Amino acid sequence: MGIIEWATSPWGQSVPIHIGWFLIWVAAIVGLSYLIVHAIYVRYFARTKEFAVDASPEFAAGVPERIPRHSLAARLFHWIMAAAMLTLLFTAFLPKIGFQFDWVTYHWIAGIVLTDSIVFHVIHASFWLDFWSIWPDRVDLRDAWRRTLRFIGRPALPPRKFAKYPLDNKLYHLAIVVSGLAVIFTGIFMLFRVRTIFFARDPYLFSDMTWGLMYVLHGLAGVGLIALIIVHAYFAIRPEKLDITKSMVFGSMSREFYLKEHDPERWAVESSTSSSTSKRAKVEG
Ligand code: HEM
């Protein structure tokens, strides 16, 4: 039982054919273990979050009751992509764990929906959204270091509140980008192995070795997505994150949540008053 399954090609060469399917269970167990450990940690050990500064009371008073967070286009993208992703996971892995059905057609159609939705997302995020808001910045890294020091009991200033996306969300997005692009790029070539409406089937496009490596990469990124999606769904239903989840349905979040978790200097919203952080100099200094 290896991570990769091998076979002998018609020319006697040993070639990879796909991943060992036991990795499906490994990924599911890793995802579930993470959420159990995290839930126990939050319930019994985590201390109350402390941040460097609060917005000034004058600024807070001027913040609107609802803070727009995701446009309709961004929400539609998210839910279409999620439906495609779940369809891909179920069609790919159910047959491998014993639920046989004719999965390939549903799988490649969902693959095309996922690919199209990601192309849309990249264009939308590059030209209409704040492209850099989802990538870790210097403040995130400095604050992660401060949090680590405080966690192990060493003296450090408290971290600032978050920009639009906390570092955890940014790192999660990065992991999804890597695994998502891996399944998409390999999946597009794998379309040549099956019958689709796009082009004639051509299983001889690559050598057996190249095809094998492609199937292995597709499978590894695919099982990685099992763990990532379990963790994502877990955070989406955690009580303290519900405001964020609801914003992916309704588009906005409450003023209270915004002021509690976010730094108006890092994620600006319209306030009817001016100075947001009159107390910052004292703490940062
Ligand atoms: C969540 C994302 C995805 C997962 C988990 C996933 C998983 C899988 C798995 C496990 C297989 C079986 C491979 C094997 O037998 O070794 C497979 C096959 C395949 N996938 Fe995906 N995949 C995903 C996304 C995509 C995308 C985006 C496309 C197309 C753009 C795609 C197209 C295909 C095709 C054409 C096959 C080949 C079937 C065959 O040769 O019989 N997949 N996928």
Keywords summarizing the entry:
binds protoporphyrin IX containing FE; two-stranded antiparallel ribbon; disordered C terminus; 285 residues; mainly alpha; 58% helix; 10 helices; single chain
What does this structure look like?
The chain is mainly alpha-helical. 58% of the residues lie in helices and 6% in strands. The protein has ten helices and four strands; from the N terminus they run ββααβααααααβαα. The strands form two sheets. It has a two-stranded antiparallel sheet with strand order 1-2. A two-stranded antiparallel sheet has the order 3-4. Helix 1 packs parallel to helix 7. The N and C termini lie far apart (58 Å). The site of protoporphyrin IX containing FE (HEM) has 25 residues, from helix 3, helix 4, helix 6 and helix 7.
Helices and strands in order, then pairings?
Elements: E1 4-8, E2 14-19, H1 22-45, H2 57-62, E3 66-68, H3 72-93, H4 104-127, H5 138-151, H6 167-190, H7 208-237, H8 242-250, E4 252-254, H9 255-261, H10 280-284
Antiparallel strand pairs: 1-2, 3-4
Helix pairs in contact: 1-7, 3-4, 6-7
Bound molecules: protoporphyrin IX containing FE.
Residues 18, 85, 88-89, 92, 104, 107-108, 111-112, 114-115, 183-184, 187-188, 190-191, 193-194, 215, 218-219, 222, 225 line the site of protoporphyrin IX containing FE.
